[in-house]
Design a protein that fits this description.
Length: 400
């Protein structure tokens, strides 16, 4: 029987998380290194929320199929002949083997690798060769059984495929709405993923030896670390983000499952390197002023600056490892033109450099959590409101 949060944390630890931020404590070390805790998070979080899982250009053309996993749960993305993207549980109902082991292109059907059951690209069983002893197989003998591939709820936002493994998911429009509200100045639909020198969408992938929560806490939620961890910010006279003692030059954006560091780009003209490129404002004459580094619980990352967006997701693989997949979006001409490749690479290089610096810190924190003197930590209320909120979201889910 799966363990509950009360099996893994005592009542004092749970209560300490719930206290007001001035006296509250973070989750203890075991929440970041214990495999039983991780399995509980899979059941209570990753099996019940919308989760960003892959990019739709991974299955770009009709007939493309791609096996993938969420927390070791096997799934299958299929681009139908009608150009619709569908996701199924990657399990053949008869033999329990994966319906597809390898990605493939230009498929007319899916032939399972173990016993040859054959499906159309909408997940419907169409052939069972020799299953009943006949050459073609008689589907009528299976009329009372569940034989089709089991569909999974899926939606696409900014080329990112989200899946929800629950039976009754939250409406996706409600889930994604906080990002739309935050980015109301931006022409999101007019943005495209930047292409590499070969004309393919640029995706940066990296592994970090860190618990997914450690990674999440650092990315976008932890504001104070910037000028200590990142070379770019360390050189800026505008960071840390304080206008004067006690007055912040940033704002915490907390809207449903979306949390972001927000700021006005005009306050950070000496921090971010200028890029001569079209902006992403909805109106040509009005460049966006509000910029963000944001996270949409539990694993989607959305960062907006006036000229480019970072759209990324992370997937955990056990209690101590996470893999991030990142794309960078620009105004269409800037995203696709060979002549602007160097301009795109400036933004990508900046993000990649910061990611490497963050990864080093996340791995250090993860190592430290194995120390016998690592206890629950406390918060800096001026900076840590989002971190505090995130910790309580975790406990909310695990107690359900």
């Amino acid at each position: 029987m799966a363990k509950s949060i009360n099996d893994l944390l005592n009542s004092e630890q749970i209560n300490s998380v719930r206290r007001p931020i001035e006296s509250a404590l973070t989750l203890p070390a075991e929440a970041f290194v214990n495999e039983d805790f991780y399995q509980l998070e899979i059941d209570k979080i990753y099996m019940r929320h919308w989760v960003a899982a892959l990019f739709q250009f991974d299955v770009n053309s009709p007939g493309d199929i791609k096996p993938f996993e969420i927390c070791e749960i096997p799934l299958l993305a299929v681009r139908g002949l009608d150009n619709t993207l569908r996701v199924f549980h990657n399990i053949c109902p008869y033999d329990g083997c994966q319906a597809a082991i390898d990605p493939a292109k230009n498929c007319q059907e899916i032939v399972t690798p173990y016993h040859g059951w054959t499906y159309d690209l909408e997940g419907k069983l169409i052939k069972t060769p020799y299953w009943d002893g006949s050459r073609e197989g008689n589907l009528d003998v299976l009329a009372d059984k569940q034989v089709d591939l089991v569909p999974v709820h899926c939606e696409v936002f900014l080329d990112t495929v989200f899946v929800n493994l629950s039976d009754n998911p939250e409406p996706f429009e409600k889930y994604i709405a906080p990002i739309l509200r935050c980015a109301e100045e931006y022409d999101l639909e007019g943005s495209e993923v930047g292409l590499d020198e070969n004309g393919n969408p640029t995706v940066l992938t990296a592994d970090v030896k860190s618990n997914w929560k450690t990674f999440y806490e650092n990315a976008c939620l932890n504001v104070l670390h910037e000028n200590f961890v990142h070379e770019l910010y360390n050189a800026s006279p505008e960071v840390p983000r304080i206008k004067e003692d006690g007055v912040a030059s940033f704002k915490n954006i907390i809207d449903g499952k979306f949390m972001a560091l927000g700021y006005n780009r005009l306050d950070f003209q000496q921090t971010y390197p200028p890029v001569e490129a079209p902006h992403l404002g909805k109106h040509a004459q009005q460049e966006p002023e509000n910029e963000t580094f944001g996270t949409l619980y539990p694993n989607f990352y959305f960062c907006s600056s006036s000229q480019y967006l970072e759209v990324a997701f992370t997937l955990p693989n056990g209690a101590s490892k996470v893999r991030q997949h990142s794309t960078y979006r620009f105004q269409k001409e800037l995203a696709t033109s060979k002549e602007t490749l160097a301009d795109r690479q400036i933004a990508m290089k900046m993000f990649a450099g910061a990611f490497k610096e963050d990864g080093r810190i996340c791995e250090s924190v993860q190592k430290a959590r194995k120390s016998p003197v690592y206890n629950q930590k406390f918060y800096a209320p001026f900076w840590d409101e989002m971190h505090y909120r995130f910790t309580n979201m975790i406990v909310d889910d695990l107690e359900k």
